[in-house]
Write a structure and sequence with these properties.
The chain is an alpha/beta fold and 372 residues long. The protein contains eleven helices and 18 strands.
Length: 372
């Protein structure tokens, strides 16, 4: 088939392009090469067999050019950041799906399926359980609570400390501009896709790591931030108390889910969690990375927090497992592969993390807690 991959020069997109080519598909990439992610232009890992179109998913003319002759679309392009440019999140993440569907319907383009990237972020704080009052889905932690260094969720009925739960696809509570824009894209793709007979599949990725995860990008995650600090013999800085839980997944496992969505009709008009299936604390992740890099540097618990972060977010992946998928790559192997790739990048030791850190402090995203 002839397949379009938006964001195909990026981390998940480029690995998906490789896998599709290996399967014998013809692939076209649409990517705007955002300077904050691709400051050197087209990455060297883009295969010559893939057709590259530089363009923006917010622009009708770029979509119309990229969609010529296309049978399947992987819409992986997205805007991700910690900053407060709210409109950009919606222009890229919410308007582009609507524009894609609008052009397909208006021009009668015979697209057979759209697979689109969503995010675990749509769950907000996710699911918690009180021993007395049962399950609940909390609102974001107030700034005043974080400033007091009170990290854990509490039951709204009795104020007792609650226990996090694996979160399935039904519990939606997006509270950041990124998360809200991603959920908006889901609503557009699933509902308009069903209305106009275009099969669509949404994949809510957990925190993804592996080679090609841009170290220029402030949103690349703790593997990028921690490893760059360790490369410079600096301690990884852990927010809150380091006990917050996350699930991490290898980019190769993400790609297998992407390909399953293409071939599996039972996935049509559904949304799936794609995660690691295992809860790992942030401080545990820091130790795994330190061992992989051969560094005996203890993480620094700074007493700071990042406003807007969730406390515990771990996805329930049982729905996708019922279609025959499951994560295969252990976190330790994922971290090793990223470290090996990073060590081969000549400018990876640069202070990109410092620039992002300072920008977030100026924007009052990173703040200091004050214990009473």
């Amino acid at each position: 088939m002839h397949i379009l991959v938006t964001g195909g020069a990026g981390f998940i997109g480029s690995h998906t392009v490789d896998a599709l080519l290996k399967k014998g598909h013809r692939v076209r990439i649409l990517d705007n090469l955002q300077p904050r992610v691709h400051p050197k232009g087209i990455p060297s890992y883009i295969p010559p067999d893939a057709e590259f179109v530089k363009g923006d998913v917010r622009e009708r003319v770029d979509w119309e050019k990229a969609l010529k002759g296309i049978e399947v679309v992987y819409h992986l392009a997205a805007y991700q950041d910690y900053m407060t440019d709210f409109s950009t999140f919606f222009h890229v993440n919410a308007v582009s799906p609507a524009l894609l569907l609008e052009i397909i319907v208006a021009k009668g383009i015979p697209v057979k399926k759209i697979i689109f990237a969503s995010s675990q972020a749509v769950y907000g704080e996710g699911k918690y359980r009180c021993g007395t009052h049962g399950d609940f889905f909390p609102a974001p932690r107030p700034l005043a609570q974080l400033e007091r260094a009170e990290w854990e969720m509490r039951c709204p009925a009795c104020n007792s400390e609650a226990t996090w739960q694996f979160t399935d696809e039904t519990a939606l509570s997006p509270h950041t501009s990124y998360a809200i824009s991603k959920y908006t894209s889901e609503l557009a793709f699933i509902n308009l896709g069903r209305r106009y007979g275009i099969p669509t599949v949404g994949l809510r990725y957990s925190i993804t790591h592996g080679p090609r995860n841009s170290f220029y990008n402030a949103y690349s995650g703790i593997c990028r931030i921690f490893s760059q600090r360790l490369m410079n013999d600096q301690a990884p800085v852990v927010f809150e108390d380091g006990l917050q839980k996350r699930d991490y997944i290898n980019v190769g496992d993400i790609v297998r889910a992407n390909l399953l969505a293409l071939d599996e009709p039972r996935a049509d008009w559904e949304v799936f969690n794609v995660g690691g299936g295992k809860a790992v604390s942030v401080i545990e992740f820091a130790h795994i990375l330190s061992r992989a890099m051969g560094k005996e540097i203890q993480p620094l618990i700074s007493g700071e927090f990042r406003f807007g972060d969730t406390r515990h977010t771990v996805s329930d992946i049982s729905k996708l497992k019922r279609l025959g998928w499951e994560p295969r790559v252990p976190l330790e192997e994922t971290v090793r592969s990223y470290v090996e790739w990073l060590s081969g990048q000549g400018d990876a030791r640069g202070g990109f993390y410092q620039d992002a850190d300072q920008e977030m402090r100026r924007g009052k995203i990173i703040m200091k807690a004050h214990r009473p």
